[in-house]
Amino acid sequence: MSVESLFPRLEALLPKVQKPIQYVGGELNSTVKDWDEATVRWALMYPDAYEVGLPNQGVQILYEILNELPETLAERTYAVWPDLERLMRAEGVPQFTVDAHRPVRAFDVLGLSFSTELGYTNMLTALDLAGIPLSAADRGPDDPIVLAGGHAAFNPEPIADFIDAAVLGDGEQIAIAISEVIREWKAEGEPGGRDGVLLRLAETGGVYVPRFYDVEYLPDGRIKRVVPNRSGVPSRVFKHTVMDLDEWPYPKKPLVPLAETVHERFSVEIFRGCTRGCRFCQAGMITRPVRERSITTIGAMVDNGIRESGFSEVGLLSLSSADHSEIGDVAKGLADRYEGSNVSLSLPSTRVDAFNIDLANEFSRNGRRSGLTFAPEGGSERMRKVINKMVSEEDLIRTVTTAYSQGWRQVKLYFMCGLPTEEDVDVLGIADLARKVIQAGREATGSRDVRCTVSIGGFVPKPHTPFQWAAQADHETVDRRLRELRNALRNDKQYGKAIGMRYHDGKPSIVEGLLSRGDRRVGKIIRAVWEDGGRFDGWSEHFSYDRWMACAAEALDGEPVDVDWYTIREREEHEVLPWDHLDAGLDREWLWQDWQDAVNDVEVEDCRWTPCYDCGVCPTMGTEIQIGPTGRKLLPLTVVS
Amino acid sequence: MAQRLRVRYAKRGRLRFTSHRDISRAVERAVRRADIPVAFSAGFSPHPRISYAGAAPTGVASEAEYLEIAVTRPCRPQELRAALDASLPPGLDVLDVVEARAGSLADRLEGSLWEVRLPGADPAAAEGAVKEFMTAGEVAVERLTKKGMRNFDARGAVVSLTADQDDHVEGGPNQSCVILRMVVRHETPAVRPDDVLMGLRLVADFAPPSPPSVTRLAQGPLDASTGEPADPLEADRVGGDQ
């Protein structure tokens, strides 16, 4: 069955919408394969606006890998803005891919990458526009398998009603394996229909099919147990880990959009995983162990990426890039190679030490020294011990003194508010720290021309972290602490004018908390919010806290649970958590012990440099940390004019 | 700076939805991929010295867009044409490159020839509206600009305007398509094809049933004898060895 391009019908709508270029595709390095020559067809969706979704590395990597397979094709689709959604509904134009403008419902798989839970309502818009039933149970043989991945998929229970399957962890190898299962199932004449192929996927132990598991509840609302409801389905589903990143040097052909996007640069992931053990950080927990790309692969990927894309900025990505075992040589090598050219390098940095400034100095050889960013995360020494962010005030002051004295004029500091055990004094400590930073800067430079911006995010407890049992702070408390902090900074005659403060109110964090640690009962809320018009929840101009609360009250009516129960309630050690049957490799007892250590201000060391702290990932998964040194140096590859 | 090169390029098909900013980003990246030795401005944040003249609006296709690139060492125009074209996405197509030899390019872009296709429009009504419009002394229209609603005359800048019928249209013989051709002088405020369409609606209640598809066919110095824009790169070609 061939499918026709929807473009002629879409084209008539484009003159009436904002930024039509985001819907037309045709990006450099994009691929359109012959529909009839493929047997397995993937539509990959990043469920947010194109400008956010296009730069997403996960989607770009899978798009390229799947299109390299001979019998497989992959196209991309993004959330359409409400102006186009209205016109598509009026004209009956379904959700389309931007590559060949094929209808999403015609594909075999709709793969969604959820970096955040706030994309759930956008998934429902896309399903509905595509003509795919919202409930997985209502889908038939002509509907794609709706497959969730990304960090939020480590607890897919709130969207269990809407997805057919979920995959945890790195997508490269499992996407290929899934394609192969579907190809074989099709070649055999699709035995067992939809359930047949889902069962084959579930039996691998690497694909979670929610409807093959029953959730039983206790009278008080807690989960009693989660059990497979048919034979052959494993009781636990494991995450996927690509062990040798040098074998997967993607993206090789980075997508270069015509439309403006949030990241206008070529990004190279220099390692995956993180061993710092920050207790609030879900990414750091679920991506273990650390696997570094070698200095030679990084060098080759940067060179290739610039030539293929024409971007003038290169970002070296990871959860803590300065921790790469050979980052000094990487930085110097790249700075040497691109010295005098108009290629700039950036390193999202969070380490608070002088070494970080050396790196920043290397990377700013071609340009200006404007701002440096550090993330102490907690405002007081005690708070930083609770979250295991091992930065002392002395470290921070010494580091910013070096930065200011070497010509950097602006320091940005990231913090969180609403952390477990937090008290008002911990948040007010942010003001003290910022004052000391400015004081140090003025002394180091002898000038008043130094600035510090504190940026504060609301803490949301996440699954598979030591804080998964913690009570989230209510939004009134968060807002009050932020208000007091703002007043403290405003009223400071001596330093206040040199300190900027950025923050959001606490309400969106409550919704994020509900979706992060929710169970299957939360699905009804998501659906009700979407039916009431909820879209683009990650955008403050579209997000409505009141709508979420009203829909939650209605959807949970008659249940023994409510929003507070999901968010501001602390869990007991043995409570069955909605994601306990999904295995991120972390030992539950270790997580609990680390949670107890947090409450008692006990820190753990980084296992990259010190002995193992027994999180359980390596033995459970048969993996180990993969780091240098390789002893190689990065020599300039090409003479840049 | 060693040389300035003037480039004519087209914006075709679905890439007509690119905005001016989208195009400038795409060109900067293409220049880098093609290894063109573009000159950079001095200062705190250097940017490539590429300038654009008279860009067509978002959603409008064009066969005649112009830009100028300054390079640090001399380039052969034909080589630059091929390299830049290969590095731009299909739909942004480089048509012609000449070395700048004389005067300002922007000053030569006096007017544009536009083609406006109106699928499903009534040919007789279109012809009547064109006649009304051309005999009017002034047709005041309004358009929402960044500075708010602006009122201006859409008639004065129109040098010529004709309506024809295209019989070779997809969708069968009953699907008529009216083609407007207009030469419009570049003035301030700029009069665009959609302003002329609004004028046709105001003078004769002529409203096409579906969105117009607009293409700029040419822009350049207005030729007194033909009344149409001539090739603006001709002055650079004269005496040149291309």
UniProtKB/TrEMBL annotation, chain A:
CDD domains assigned: Radical_SAM
Q: Name one GO molecular function term.
A: iron-sulfur cluster binding
**Boundaries of each Radical SAM core domain copy?**
260-502
- A single Pfam family it belongs to is Radical_SAM_N2
The cross-references to InterPro entries, in alphabetical order and at most eight, read: CHP03960_rSAM (IPR023862), Elp3/MiaA/NifB-like_rSAM (IPR006638), Radical_SAM_N2 (IPR045784), rSAM (IPR007197), rSAM_sf (IPR058240)
Q: What is this protein called?
A: TIGR03960 family B12-binding radical SAM protein
Species assigned in the record: Herbidospora solisilvae
From TrEMBL, chain B:
> Where are the stretches annotated Disordered?
208-242
InterPro entries associated with the record: DUF2344
Recorded hits in Pfam families, A to Z, give: DUF2344
- Domain DUF2344 positions: 4-193
Superkingdom of the source species: Bacteria
NCBIfam families of this UniProt entry? sam_1_link_chp (TIGR03936)
The protein in question is named: DUF2344 domain-containing protein
Q: Which organism is it from?
A: Herbidospora solisilvae
What does UniProt list as this organism's lineage? Bacteria, Bacillati, Actinomycetota, Actinomycetes, Streptosporangiales
